[in-house]
Amino acid sequence: MISDKLRDQTIGFTKEIQALLNGTIASHVQIKAVALPVGDDRLFLLGHLLDKRTLTAERFQLRPRAPRVELWMDVSFQLRLDAEREHLMVQQSFVGVFGSKDAKHGLFHYDYERDKADGYPDAHLQVDASSGFFGTLNDPKCDPGRSLGALHFPVGGKRFRPCLEDVIEFLAVERIVNARDGYEKILEAGRERFRQNQLMAAMRRDPATVDKFIERYREAERA
């Protein structure tokens, strides 16, 4: 049976992401959610002006600090309920920065794919860059001509991966984009929600460690 809990939590998450982007480094972003049936359940796809027919989202423009330069951001999520069908879970996410609306290569992108099947880290960063030194490390039999941008840098796994707030902070503090006044408070509030959600999820998955933590503090209080 399709759960309305998924729909309701997805709507809340959609509003959070849209407010985060429009309150910090973007304008007029409209995050849309589309339900995709998966067996007896469904997956929600999220993205800017997500098309119901093609299931593709559009990139949106940022305000780069450098003059006469375009900068576009691509943000998308796939959401479902967890195994207990109680809490919203990110199945996949993508955050990338590009030089045009349709460019295949950009500055960088963060990917997350739960239980990724090809051997690469579930959560990883790829930077579209080159390195002469890295070129000397390639095995000419297996990886001739492989670029630095092809590398998947692990970034914390499914539980402690970077959040969208971290990417926004990077763009702002490295003076790549113009951010709105007071953006720091918005980022910190969103980051705190993310960390609390991840911590709660980690606790649900590892109750033995939680019990050890509680017992340790009980012993400290009794001492």
Write the layout of secondary structure elements.
Elements: H1 4-22, E1 31-38, E2 41-48, E3 60-61, E4 72-81, E5 88-98, E6 106-113, E7 123-127, H2 132-137, E8 153-154, H3 157-160, H4 164-173, H5 183-205, H6 207-222
Antiparallel strand pairs: 1-2, 2-4, 3-4, 4-5, 5-6, 6-7, 7-8
Helix pairs in contact: 4-5
Spatial extent as radius of gyration: 20 Å
The low-confidence runs, each spanning 5 or more residues with pLDDT under 50, are none
Oligomeric form of this entry?
single chain
Tally of discrete structural domains:
1
Shape call: globular
The run of helices and strands is HEEEEEEEHEHHHH
Number of strands: 8
The residue fraction in helices comes out at 25-40%
Helical/strand content category: alpha+beta
Taking the alpha carbons of the first and last residues, their distance comes to 52 Å
**What is the count of helical runs?**
6
Average predicted confidence as pLDDT: 93
- Report the biggest beta sheet as strand number plus sense, adding barrel if it closes: 8 strands, antiparallel
Strand content: 15-25%
